[in-house]
Amino acid sequence: MTYIVALTGGIGSGKTTVSNEFKKIGINIIDTDTIAKNIIEFNSTISLSIKKKFGKKILNIDNSINRFLLRKYVFNNKNDRLWLENLLYPKIYQETKNQIKITQSNWCLWVVPLLIEKKLEKKAHRILLVDTPVKEQIKRIIKRDNISHVEAKKIISLQTTRKARISISDDIIFNNKNIKNINLYIYYFNIFYSYLSEKYHKKKIIDIKKNYLTKFY
Ligand code: ATP
């Protein structure tokens, strides 16, 4: 099996920004958001269930599901959010496994925002967190998603806390500085994960988590 590094982080922390950089250097990316998007778009059973549950208010003019509106509704209703997650996650995890099977790079990056919420921590060999202070997250998502300060704060309050994420992570990219710094992390972590994957494939790992923690602060 390929060596799996799970990449997690709160909304707007920079997961896509980081995974795009790993992609550029040839690392296979398995992105649960992209998988979810494809399931909603192409799995007719799933899309029908969503349409039945939420009705016309989440549909585009052409009757397709408007993911932005869907996200808006589920972030305002915990039961609806859990319903949707429970509907999608078994399929997302199945597709994740399919994609992992066919990865070509010596390690792969599994982008999974809900790693903690869905209790998937043990499904990866290593956990890499993109960490950003909440204030910065709020600023970024207001700008990117054109939402209010209140909405941004509400979305973040529904997610796992920054502290909980830090506590389960092996490695951290602190994404609060100039974006150019990200390339240094990418360079370093690619060497590091290639090394760990080689050891893993030679079955030489005894207690890698204990010996190689790279939380930089
Ligand atoms: P989501 O959880 O919503 O999918 P994400 O964790 O994938 O978000 P990105 O989409 O990578 O986060 O980043 C969120 C926004 O913040 C984007 O508009 C991105 O360009 C910007 N951004 C990311 N990193 C930085 C940074 N270091 N400085 C300034 N802006 C940044």
From TrEMBL:
Superkingdom as given in the UniProt entry: Bacteria
Query: Which Pfam family name is an example for this entry?
Result: CoaE
The protein's name is Dephospho-CoA kinase
Catalytic reactions on record: 3'-dephospho-CoA + ATP = ADP + CoA + H(+)
In the record, what terms sit under GO molecular function?
ATP binding; dephospho-CoA kinase activity
Q: Which purpose does this protein serve, as stated in its record?
A: Catalyzes the phosphorylation of the 3'-hydroxyl group of dephosphocoenzyme A to form coenzyme A.
Q: Which NCBIfam families match?
A: dephospho-CoA kinase
Q: In which pathway does this enzyme or protein participate?
A: Cofactor biosynthesis; coenzyme A biosynthesis; CoA from (R)-pantothenate: step 5/5
**Into which family does the record put it?**
Belongs to the CoaE family.
Q: What EC number(s) does the entry state?
A: 2.7.1.24
Positions with a binding annotation for ATP: 12-17
Which GO cellular component terms are attached? Answer: cytoplasm
This protein's major location comes to cytoplasm
Sorted alphabetically, the Gene Ontology BP terms of this entry are: coenzyme A biosynthetic process
Give the keywords, sorted. ATP-binding, Coenzyme A biosynthesis, Cytoplasm, Kinase, Nucleotide-binding, Transferase
Q: Where in the cell is it found?
A: Cytoplasm
Q: Tell me which species this is from.
A: Buchnera aphidicola (Acyrthosiphon lactucae)
